[in-house]
Amino acid sequence: MSGLMPARAHYFDGDAPVGQPVQPEISGDTLELKLEDGSTIRWPLSEIRQISDSAAKTNPMLRWVNDPLARLVLKDAKFLRDMPNLRRRSPPKGRGRLVAWALAAVAAVALQIGLLIPLLADNLAVLIPPEGERVLGEATLGHIRDALDETGLNPLEVCEVSKGKAALERLVTNLSGKRDFRQDVTVSVLDHEMVNAFALPGGFVVIFRGLIDAADGPDEVAAVLAHEIGHVISRDPTRHALRSAGSIGVLGLLFGDFAGGAAVLLLAERLISAQYSQGAETGADTFAYGVLSQAGINPGALGDMFESMRDKHGDSAGVTSHFLSHPTLSERITASRAVIDPDATYEPSMSDEDWAALQNICG
Ligand SMILES: [Zn+2]
Prior knowledge:
With 363 residues, the chain is of the alpha+beta class. It is built from 11 helices and 11 strands. It folds into 3 domains: 2-82, PH-domain like (Roll); 92-127; 130-359, no CATH class. Bound molecules: zinc ion. Zinc ion is lined by residues 227, 231, 276, 281, 284, 322.
Protein backbone atom coordinates (compact mmCIF):
# COMPACT_ATOMS: atom_id res chain seq x y z
CA MET A 1 0.00 0.00 0.00
CA SER A 2 2.97 2.27 0.51
CA GLY A 3 3.23 2.81 -3.22
CA LEU A 4 0.05 4.78 -3.09
CA MET A 5 1.28 7.11 -0.42
CA PRO A 6 2.60 10.41 -1.80
CA ALA A 7 6.40 10.57 -1.55
CA ARG A 8 7.38 12.66 1.43
CA ALA A 9 10.85 13.40 0.08
CA HIS A 10 13.17 13.21 -2.88
CA TYR A 11 16.64 11.82 -2.54
CA PHE A 12 19.42 13.00 -4.84
CA ASP A 13 22.51 10.80 -4.67
CA GLY A 14 24.71 13.32 -6.41
CA ASP A 15 25.27 11.17 -9.48
CA ALA A 16 21.86 10.72 -11.03
CA PRO A 17 20.45 13.99 -12.39
CA VAL A 18 17.02 13.32 -10.97
CA GLY A 19 15.96 12.49 -7.46
CA GLN A 20 14.05 9.42 -6.43
CA PRO A 21 11.01 9.53 -4.21
CA VAL A 22 11.57 8.15 -0.73
CA GLN A 23 9.61 7.78 2.47
CA PRO A 24 11.89 8.96 5.26
CA GLU A 25 11.48 7.27 8.59
CA ILE A 26 13.07 7.93 11.91
CA SER A 27 14.45 4.88 13.66
CA GLY A 28 16.04 5.69 16.99
CA ASP A 29 18.50 8.49 16.28
CA THR A 30 18.81 7.75 12.60
CA LEU A 31 16.93 8.92 9.55
CA GLU A 32 16.34 5.98 7.26
CA LEU A 33 15.75 6.33 3.55
CA LYS A 34 14.73 3.19 1.70
CA LEU A 35 15.78 3.49 -1.90
CA GLU A 36 14.17 1.95 -4.93
CA ASP A 37 17.02 -0.53 -5.37
CA GLY A 38 16.23 -1.96 -1.94
CA SER A 39 19.19 -0.38 -0.17
CA THR A 40 18.76 1.84 2.85
CA ILE A 41 20.55 5.13 3.48
CA ARG A 42 21.04 5.93 7.14
CA TRP A 43 21.85 9.43 8.29
CA PRO A 44 22.40 10.00 12.03
CA LEU A 45 19.99 12.80 12.99
CA SER A 46 22.72 14.83 14.71
CA GLU A 47 24.83 14.81 11.53
CA ILE A 48 22.18 16.19 9.25
CA ARG A 49 22.48 19.78 8.15
CA GLN A 50 20.02 21.99 6.39
CA ILE A 51 21.35 23.78 3.36
CA SER A 52 20.73 27.35 4.27
CA ASP A 53 19.90 28.84 0.91
CA SER A 54 17.26 26.24 0.18
CA ALA A 55 15.05 28.91 1.56
CA ALA A 56 11.63 27.56 0.96
CA LYS A 57 10.47 26.34 4.31
CA THR A 58 8.05 24.08 2.58
CA ASN A 59 10.83 22.13 0.85
CA PRO A 60 13.84 22.07 3.15
CA MET A 61 16.99 20.63 1.59
CA LEU A 62 19.16 18.45 3.82
CA ARG A 63 22.58 16.92 3.56
CA TRP A 64 24.67 14.55 5.64
CA VAL A 65 28.02 15.93 6.86
CA ASN A 66 29.92 12.89 5.61
CA ASP A 67 28.51 12.90 2.12
CA PRO A 68 29.41 16.03 0.19
CA LEU A 69 27.04 15.36 -2.71
CA ALA A 70 23.83 13.68 -1.60
CA ARG A 71 20.77 15.84 -0.92
CA LEU A 72 17.38 15.13 0.53
CA VAL A 73 14.50 17.46 -0.30
CA LEU A 74 11.58 17.15 2.06
CA LYS A 75 7.97 17.89 1.23
CA ASP A 76 7.35 19.43 4.61
CA ALA A 77 9.11 20.35 7.83
CA LYS A 78 7.76 17.39 9.77
CA PHE A 79 11.11 15.70 10.50
CA LEU A 80 13.13 18.81 11.13
CA ARG A 81 12.28 19.02 14.84
CA ASP A 82 14.06 15.70 15.37
CA MET A 83 17.31 16.96 13.85
CA PRO A 84 19.22 18.89 16.53
CA ASN A 85 22.13 20.28 14.52
CA LEU A 86 20.58 21.48 11.32
CA ARG A 87 22.26 24.86 11.57
CA ARG A 88 25.58 23.82 13.01
CA ARG A 89 28.53 24.72 10.87
CA SER A 90 30.64 21.78 9.96
CA PRO A 91 33.97 22.04 8.20
CA PRO A 92 32.90 21.68 4.60
CA LYS A 93 34.84 19.17 2.57
CA GLY A 94 36.01 21.79 0.13
CA ARG A 95 37.64 23.92 2.77
CA GLY A 96 39.30 20.88 4.32
CA ARG A 97 40.83 20.16 0.99
CA LEU A 98 42.00 23.76 0.71
CA VAL A 99 43.69 23.53 4.11
CA ALA A 100 45.36 20.32 2.99
CA TRP A 101 46.64 22.08 -0.14
CA ALA A 102 47.93 24.97 1.92
CA LEU A 103 49.72 22.60 4.27
CA ALA A 104 51.23 20.80 1.32
CA ALA A 105 52.47 24.12 -0.06
CA VAL A 106 54.04 25.04 3.27
CA ALA A 107 55.63 21.62 3.45
CA ALA A 108 57.04 22.12 -0.02
CA VAL A 109 58.57 25.44 1.00
CA ALA A 110 59.94 23.89 4.18
CA LEU A 111 61.46 21.19 2.05
CA GLN A 112 62.98 23.85 -0.15
CA ILE A 113 64.46 25.64 2.84
CA GLY A 114 65.54 22.47 4.56
CA LEU A 115 66.90 20.57 1.61
CA LEU A 116 67.24 22.48 -1.59
CA ILE A 117 68.88 25.61 -0.25
CA PRO A 118 71.64 23.85 1.70
CA LEU A 119 72.26 21.82 -1.43
CA LEU A 120 72.36 24.93 -3.59
CA ALA A 121 74.47 26.72 -1.02
CA ASP A 122 77.07 23.98 -1.00
CA ASN A 123 77.27 24.08 -4.78
CA LEU A 124 77.24 27.87 -4.90
CA ALA A 125 80.06 27.98 -2.36
CA VAL A 126 82.23 26.16 -4.87
CA LEU A 127 81.26 28.47 -7.73
CA ILE A 128 81.33 31.82 -5.99
CA PRO A 129 84.55 33.71 -6.90
CA PRO A 130 86.86 35.00 -4.13
CA GLU A 131 85.82 38.60 -4.83
CA GLY A 132 82.20 37.56 -4.38
CA GLU A 133 82.99 35.98 -1.03
CA ARG A 134 84.82 39.10 -0.02
CA VAL A 135 81.83 41.30 -0.87
CA LEU A 136 79.47 38.93 0.94
CA GLY A 137 81.71 38.94 4.01
CA GLU A 138 82.10 42.71 4.05
CA ALA A 139 78.35 43.21 3.73
CA THR A 140 77.54 40.77 6.53
CA LEU A 141 80.19 42.25 8.80
CA GLY A 142 78.51 45.61 8.23
CA HIS A 143 75.11 44.12 9.10
CA ILE A 144 76.52 42.51 12.23
CA ARG A 145 78.14 45.76 13.36
CA ASP A 146 74.84 47.58 12.81
CA ALA A 147 72.84 44.87 14.57
CA LEU A 148 75.06 44.75 17.64
CA ASP A 149 75.15 48.45 18.31
CA GLU A 150 72.88 49.13 21.24
CA THR A 151 72.30 52.79 20.46
CA GLY A 152 71.20 51.95 16.93
CA LEU A 153 73.04 55.05 15.72
CA ASN A 154 76.49 53.87 14.72
CA PRO A 155 77.89 50.53 13.69
CA LEU A 156 79.76 48.72 16.46
CA GLU A 157 83.33 49.97 16.65
CA VAL A 158 86.25 48.06 15.15
CA CYS A 159 89.14 48.29 17.62
CA GLU A 160 92.14 49.88 15.94
CA VAL A 161 94.68 51.02 18.50
CA SER A 162 97.82 50.67 16.37
CA LYS A 163 100.02 48.81 18.87
CA GLY A 164 97.25 46.28 19.39
CA LYS A 165 96.75 45.87 15.66
CA ALA A 166 100.45 45.30 15.15
CA ALA A 167 100.45 42.69 17.92
CA LEU A 168 97.50 40.90 16.31
CA GLU A 169 99.26 40.88 12.95
CA ARG A 170 102.37 39.35 14.52
CA LEU A 171 100.19 36.67 16.10
CA VAL A 172 98.65 35.77 12.72
CA THR A 173 102.14 35.64 11.18
CA ASN A 174 103.33 33.43 14.02
CA LEU A 175 100.40 31.04 13.52
CA SER A 176 100.66 31.11 9.76
CA GLY A 177 104.00 29.29 9.52
CA LYS A 178 104.56 27.24 6.41
CA ARG A 179 100.90 27.23 5.41
CA ASP A 180 101.05 31.01 5.07
CA PHE A 181 97.37 31.85 5.18
CA ARG A 182 98.06 35.50 5.95
CA GLN A 183 96.64 36.56 2.57
CA ASP A 184 93.50 34.52 3.20
CA VAL A 185 92.44 36.03 6.51
CA THR A 186 91.59 39.47 7.84
CA VAL A 187 91.37 39.46 11.61
CA SER A 188 89.61 42.25 13.46
CA VAL A 189 88.46 42.91 17.01
CA LEU A 190 84.99 44.31 17.71
CA ASP A 191 84.37 46.39 20.81
CA HIS A 192 81.73 44.20 22.44
CA GLU A 193 81.69 42.28 25.70
CA MET A 194 80.43 39.04 24.17
CA VAL A 195 82.83 36.14 24.75
CA ASN A 196 82.80 35.02 21.16
CA ALA A 197 84.56 34.89 17.85
CA PHE A 198 83.36 33.99 14.39
CA ALA A 199 84.41 33.72 10.80
CA LEU A 200 82.70 35.27 7.78
CA PRO A 201 82.90 34.60 4.06
CA GLY A 202 85.93 36.10 2.36
CA GLY A 203 88.31 35.26 5.20
CA PHE A 204 87.06 37.72 7.79
CA VAL A 205 87.71 36.53 11.32
CA VAL A 206 86.15 38.56 14.09
CA ILE A 207 87.08 38.39 17.76
CA PHE A 208 85.04 40.21 20.36
CA ARG A 209 86.84 42.22 23.02
CA GLY A 210 84.98 40.12 25.60
CA LEU A 211 86.88 37.04 24.48
CA ILE A 212 90.25 38.76 24.91
CA ASP A 213 89.13 39.97 28.35
CA ALA A 214 88.00 36.49 29.34
CA ALA A 215 91.11 34.70 28.04
CA ASP A 216 93.62 33.45 30.54
CA GLY A 217 96.67 34.47 28.53
CA PRO A 218 97.44 34.97 24.85
CA ASP A 219 97.55 31.28 23.93
CA GLU A 220 93.81 30.94 24.44
CA VAL A 221 93.19 33.81 22.01
CA ALA A 222 95.68 32.24 19.60
CA ALA A 223 93.84 28.92 19.85
CA VAL A 224 90.45 30.48 19.13
CA LEU A 225 91.97 32.41 16.24
CA ALA A 226 93.44 29.19 14.83
CA HIS A 227 90.06 27.49 15.14
CA GLU A 228 88.32 30.30 13.25
CA ILE A 229 91.01 30.27 10.57
CA GLY A 230 90.23 26.57 10.26
CA HIS A 231 86.64 27.50 9.39
CA VAL A 232 87.92 30.02 6.84
CA ILE A 233 90.16 27.48 5.14
CA SER A 234 87.30 24.98 4.81
CA ARG A 235 84.95 27.80 3.72
CA ASP A 236 82.38 26.88 6.33
CA PRO A 237 81.19 30.50 6.72
CA THR A 238 80.50 30.87 2.99
CA ARG A 239 78.27 27.82 2.89
CA HIS A 240 76.61 28.91 6.10
CA ALA A 241 75.97 32.46 4.89
CA LEU A 242 74.56 31.25 1.59
CA ARG A 243 72.23 28.90 3.43
CA SER A 244 71.07 31.59 5.81
CA ALA A 245 70.69 34.20 3.12
CA GLY A 246 68.87 31.71 0.92
CA SER A 247 66.44 30.73 3.65
CA ILE A 248 65.82 34.34 4.55
CA GLY A 249 65.30 35.14 0.88
CA VAL A 250 62.61 32.47 0.66
CA LEU A 251 61.02 33.71 3.88
CA GLY A 252 61.03 37.17 2.36
CA LEU A 253 59.18 35.90 -0.68
CA LEU A 254 56.61 34.29 1.59
CA PHE A 255 56.08 37.09 4.02
CA GLY A 256 56.80 40.16 1.92
CA ASP A 257 58.04 42.90 4.17
CA PHE A 258 59.76 40.38 6.40
CA ALA A 259 62.78 40.95 4.19
CA GLY A 260 63.55 44.23 5.95
CA GLY A 261 65.42 44.81 9.18
CA ALA A 262 64.22 41.62 10.82
CA ALA A 263 65.89 39.53 8.17
CA VAL A 264 69.17 41.38 8.57
CA LEU A 265 69.04 40.82 12.33
CA LEU A 266 68.24 37.18 11.84
CA LEU A 267 71.09 36.78 9.40
CA ALA A 268 73.52 38.53 11.75
CA GLU A 269 72.39 36.38 14.66
CA ARG A 270 72.77 33.22 12.63
CA LEU A 271 76.26 34.11 11.50
CA ILE A 272 77.51 35.07 14.95
CA SER A 273 76.11 32.01 16.62
CA ALA A 274 76.92 29.88 13.59
CA GLN A 275 75.90 26.34 14.30
CA TYR A 276 78.20 24.46 12.03
CA SER A 277 78.01 20.74 11.72
CA GLN A 278 79.83 18.58 14.20
CA GLY A 279 82.19 17.61 11.40
CA ALA A 280 82.97 21.26 10.63
CA GLU A 281 83.70 21.99 14.30
CA THR A 282 85.90 18.95 14.71
CA GLY A 283 87.68 19.88 11.49
CA ALA A 284 88.35 23.41 12.71
CA ASP A 285 89.61 22.07 16.04
CA THR A 286 91.95 19.66 14.30
CA PHE A 287 93.21 22.44 12.06
CA ALA A 288 93.86 24.56 15.16
CA TYR A 289 95.83 21.80 16.89
CA GLY A 290 98.03 21.46 13.82
CA VAL A 291 98.63 25.20 13.47
CA LEU A 292 99.36 25.66 17.18
CA SER A 293 101.69 22.68 17.42
CA GLN A 294 103.57 23.73 14.30
CA ALA A 295 104.03 27.23 15.73
CA GLY A 296 105.33 25.76 18.99
CA ILE A 297 102.23 26.84 20.93
CA ASN A 298 100.52 24.50 23.40
CA PRO A 299 97.47 23.06 21.56
CA GLY A 300 95.89 22.41 24.94
CA ALA A 301 95.14 26.16 25.07
CA LEU A 302 92.02 25.52 23.00
CA GLY A 303 90.84 23.11 25.68
CA ASP A 304 91.68 25.68 28.36
CA MET A 305 89.49 28.24 26.60
CA PHE A 306 86.67 25.71 26.28
CA GLU A 307 87.06 24.82 29.92
CA SER A 308 86.63 28.38 31.16
CA MET A 309 83.59 28.72 28.87
CA ARG A 310 82.14 25.52 30.27
CA ASP A 311 82.72 26.71 33.84
CA LYS A 312 80.91 29.91 32.99
CA HIS A 313 78.03 28.62 30.91
CA GLY A 314 77.80 24.89 31.48
CA ASP A 315 78.15 22.20 28.88
CA SER A 316 75.04 22.93 26.89
CA ALA A 317 74.29 25.71 24.45
CA GLY A 318 72.00 28.63 25.14
CA VAL A 319 74.62 31.31 24.98
CA THR A 320 75.17 33.03 21.68
CA SER A 321 78.40 31.37 20.87
CA HIS A 322 79.16 28.77 18.33
CA PHE A 323 81.76 27.36 20.68
CA LEU A 324 78.97 26.12 22.88
CA SER A 325 77.44 23.98 20.18
CA HIS A 326 78.08 20.35 19.54
CA PRO A 327 80.33 18.48 19.97
CA THR A 328 80.05 19.12 23.68
CA LEU A 329 82.75 21.23 25.27
CA SER A 330 83.79 18.37 27.54
CA GLU A 331 84.56 16.17 24.57
CA ARG A 332 86.51 18.97 22.94
CA ILE A 333 88.46 19.67 26.11
CA THR A 334 89.44 16.01 26.32
CA ALA A 335 90.38 15.96 22.64
CA SER A 336 92.50 19.08 23.03
CA ARG A 337 94.41 17.67 26.01
CA ALA A 338 95.10 14.50 24.07
CA VAL A 339 97.01 16.48 21.44
CA ILE A 340 99.54 17.89 23.93
CA ASP A 341 102.97 16.43 23.24
CA PRO A 342 104.58 15.62 26.62
CA ASP A 343 108.08 15.92 25.12
CA ALA A 344 107.56 19.31 23.49
CA THR A 345 108.61 22.65 24.94
CA TYR A 346 105.93 25.15 24.04
CA GLU A 347 106.50 28.87 23.69
CA PRO A 348 103.98 31.60 24.44
CA SER A 349 102.13 32.71 21.31
CA MET A 350 102.88 36.38 22.00
CA SER A 351 105.41 38.41 23.91
CA ASP A 352 104.22 39.97 27.18
CA GLU A 353 104.39 43.35 25.51
CA ASP A 354 102.27 42.25 22.54
CA TRP A 355 99.73 40.56 24.81
CA ALA A 356 99.36 43.76 26.81
CA ALA A 357 98.91 45.69 23.57
CA LEU A 358 96.26 43.27 22.30
CA GLN A 359 94.36 43.55 25.59
CA ASN A 360 94.30 47.29 25.00
CA ILE A 361 93.41 47.20 21.30
CA CYS A 362 90.03 48.88 21.91
CA GLY A 363 91.62 51.71 23.89
ZN1 LIG B 1 83.84 26.64 15.25
